């Protein structure tokens, strides 16, 4: 059975191929592979069982999704001449991108050209772009095909895929997660930032792509599991010093900020707080129980009775007024008289 290997191309694009010989190529080796139209050159990024798990006997190692089919097979290992030709194509892609941008402006298309990629045998040129809506680029494709004398493929990508392809440095000072190690781009919502008690300012929780940070997604489970060990914020605890309210928790330093009734605050390690709390209470989170009796407020000296309190929670249903039926006419009025007589 042929082995499965993962090959990485420009822009962190990865595909899977089969390797027929007995000895598979080592990591980092450049190989020539068969693609849909011709041949391409890439670098081996995973082999053997690692490649099979990533290919997915599921999605990135998860057995819940259907496995991906290999794109083709590895033809041979790349020679020094093959690698030199690939480097020359990469240098020429900047000039290709500028020419494509000029043609896009001539056709006045609402699209932003992100990158251009030559296939190793120059039988296909792929242009990546972003746009807010669907773009009709049929005229542009015919123009580019006549300019470069090859098959043109325009591929629309999102803002996250553009950042993954172009790479960069994030606000943390490190390489983008999507370009370095993150296997897949999953949706990120604002609710994840709320669960982590982060500022909801878009400029502080957005990445270089202008979308929410990817780390909000894969770090969310850590925050959820860590907060289960801490008391709920706003809860009042009975400690050795009396009743104290939980103002904030610091899951990284394992500390809890408490505020007493006199307004004084103190930071207590979580391990010490568990010893200070009375045995009948637990410092862990707990849902607040509803009050046993209805709490009423006296406004303007008005006495609120039990019946009025119950009506405030569940108002009584009044009699429904029937429509379309009129009662008997008032005394002295004859409805059978004509309109002229009624005004008399």
The global form is: elongated
Distance between the termini: 109 Å
| Widest sheet, order of strands | 1-2-5-3-4
Helical fraction equals 25-40%
Largest sheet: 5 strands, mixed, barrel
Report the strand count: 12
What are the secondary-structure elements, in order, as H or E? Answer: EEEEHEHEEHEHHHHHHEEEEHHH
> What average pLDDT do the residues reach?
80
Structural class: alpha+beta
Low-confidence stretches: 57-67, 286-306, 308-315, 335-344
Radius of gyration: 35 Å
What's the structural domain tally? 4
Number of helices: 12
Short summary of the structure?
This protein is 29% helix and 23% strand. The chain is of the alpha+beta class. The protein folds into 4 domains: 3-78, no CATH class; 85-157, 2-Layer Sandwich (GMP Synthetase, Chain A, domain 3), CATH 3.30.300.20; 164-221, no CATH class; 236-276.
Task: Note down, in words, how this protein is organized.
The chain is of the alpha+beta class and 344 residues long. It has 4 domains: 3-78, no CATH class; 85-157, 2-Layer Sandwich (GMP Synthetase, Chain A, domain 3), CATH 3.30.300; 164-221, no CATH class; 236-276. Helices cover 29% and strands 23% of the residues. It has 12 helices and 12 strands. The chain has helices spanning 48-55, 80-107, 138-148, 159-166, 177-180, 190-195, 202-205, 215-218, 220-227, 270-276, 306-313, 339-342; strands at 3-8, 14-19, 30-35, 38-47, 72-77, 112-118, 124-130, 151-156, 236-239, 242-250, 255-260, 265-269. It has a 5-stranded mixed barrel with strand order 1-2-5-3-4. The chain has a 4-stranded antiparallel β-sheet with strand order 9-10-11-12. Helix 3 links the parallel strand 7 and strand 8. Helix 2 (80-107) crosses helix 3 (138-148). It is elongated, with a radius of gyration of 35 Å. It starts with a strand and ends with a helix. Residues 57-67, 286-306, 308-315 and 335-344 have low confidence and may be disordered.
């Amino acid at each position: 059975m042929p082995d499965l290997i993962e090959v990485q191309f420009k822009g962190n694009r990865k595909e899977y191929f089969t390797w027929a010989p007995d000895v598979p190529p080592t990591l980092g080796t450049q190989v020539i592979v068969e693609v849909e139209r011709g041949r391409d050159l890439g670098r081996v990024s995973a082999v053997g069982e690692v490649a099979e798990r990533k290919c997915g006997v599921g999605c990135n190692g998860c057995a819940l999704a259907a496995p991906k089919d290999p794109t083709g097979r590895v033809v041979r290992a790349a020679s020094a001449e093959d690698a030199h030709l690939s480097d020359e194509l990469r240098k020429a892609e900047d000039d290709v991108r500028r020419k494509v941008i000029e043609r896009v402006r001539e056709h006045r298309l609402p699209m932003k050209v992100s990158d251009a990629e030559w296939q190793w045998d120059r039988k296909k040129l792929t242009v990546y772009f972003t746009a807010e809506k669907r773009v009709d680029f049929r005229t542009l494709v015919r123009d580019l095909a006549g300019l470069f004398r090859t098959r043109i493929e325009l591929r629309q990508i999102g803002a996250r895929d553009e950042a993954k392809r172009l790479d960069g440095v994030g606000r943390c000072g490190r390489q983008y997660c999507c370009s370095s190690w993150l296997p897949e781009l999953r949706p990120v919502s604002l609710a994840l930032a709320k669960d982590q008690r982060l500022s909801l300012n878009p400029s502080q929780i957005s990445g270089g792509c202008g979308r929410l940070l990817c780390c909000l997604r894969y770090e969310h489970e850590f925050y959820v599991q860590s907060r289960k060990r801490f008391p709920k914020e706003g809860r009042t605890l009975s400690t050795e010093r009396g009743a104290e309210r939980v103002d904030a928790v610091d899951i990284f330093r394992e500390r809890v900020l408490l505020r007493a009734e006199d307004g004084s605050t103190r930071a207590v390690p979580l391990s010490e707080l568990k010893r200070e709390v009375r045995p009948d209470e637990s410092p862990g989170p707990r849902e607040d129980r509803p009050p046993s009796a209805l709490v009423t407020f006296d406004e303007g000296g008005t006495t609120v009775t039990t019946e009025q309190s119950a009506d405030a929670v569940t108002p009584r249903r009044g009699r429904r007024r029937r429509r379309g039926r009129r009662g008997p006419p008032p005394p002295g009025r004859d409805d059978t008289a004509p309109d002229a007589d009624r005004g008399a």
